[in-house]
Amino acid sequence: MGFAVSDELLGTVAPIVVYWLYSGIYVALSSLESYRLHSKAEEEEKNLVSKSSVVKGVLLQQLVQAVVAIILFTITGSDAEVDEKFSLLVLARQFVTAMIVLDTWQYFIHRYMHHNKFLYKHIHSQHHRLIVPYAYGALYNHPVEGLLLDTVGGALSFLISGMSPRTSIFFFSFATIKTVDDHCGLWLPGNLFHMVFKNNSAYHDVHHQLYGSKFNFSQPFFVVWDRILGTYMPYTLEKRADGGLEARPTKEFKDD
Asked: InterPro entries of this UniProt entry (predicted)?
């Protein structure tokens, strides 16, 4: 008698497992100083929260996400109830729709949390305790932000795109990998995310610095909303004197 794992269970658990596995790869690569956007010393000196607290915060958010995913799958039904032929065109449409929905939701909620002083002070500032981002801190948020920004955003992208639990396994695992990559603090040669997406580790690192906190709100895929609404801060990658790289705003922003 074989042991069957449902798509709903995989859709709940896979993104969590992927998060820690992919983060682990970047932890192993974090000693590559020549590819770091900040030195190891800066990471230890500038960040305002311990790594153990980050791990606890991420695990709490993932617990909430898992509960919401189970409820969502229960309400919407399972793949077994849908007799639908697999289509790459349908899959692509659902992926793109989900990406647009997630990006739109996160841009406006994220931006509002920066402009509303109460929300920033009491909620969103927790994420910005990581001035020097690192991979497994990607989902370190205040529980309210984790629920509103990521969990609700994910639920909306799932529902509006019309994807099945099976498709969600791949989409949310992909979105998780992308989010971790954006916070990894490294600029590695050959990184496909850097080649395909303008929204990447350097782009998001700019947002985590004081000079960029009112810019580069877009996450996790595109930079469209930043460009349309005037919050796009371009950058250049420059070599640091002590080794490694640094994302710096381009000249027009330096002159402001």
From this structure: Fatty_acid_hydroxylase, Sterol_Desaturase_Related
* pLDDT surpasses 80 at 34: yes
Half-sphere exposure of 233 (CA within 13 A, CB side): 24
Which domain range does residue 45 map to?
7-77+86-253
pLDDT tens track for 72-123: 999 987 554 444 566 889 999 999 999 999 999 999 999 999 999 999 999 9
Helices 152-161 and 165-182, axial angle in degrees (round to 10): 140
Residue 83 is predicted with a pLDDT of 44
Measured at the CA of 39, the angle between CA 33 and CA 40, to 5 degrees, comes to 90
Domain for residue 230, yes or no? yes
- CB count in 10 Å sphere of residue 73: 21
Rounded CA separation 147/220 (Å):
16
> Distance between CA 151 and CA 119 in Å, rounded?
18
Residue 2 lies in a domain: no
Give how many domains the chain has, as a whole number. Answer: 1
CA atoms of 92 and 99, how far apart (whole Å): 11
As a whole number of angstroms, the distance between CA 131 and CA 204 comes to 11
The whole model's pTM is what? 0.93
Contact 64, 18 (CB under 8 A): no
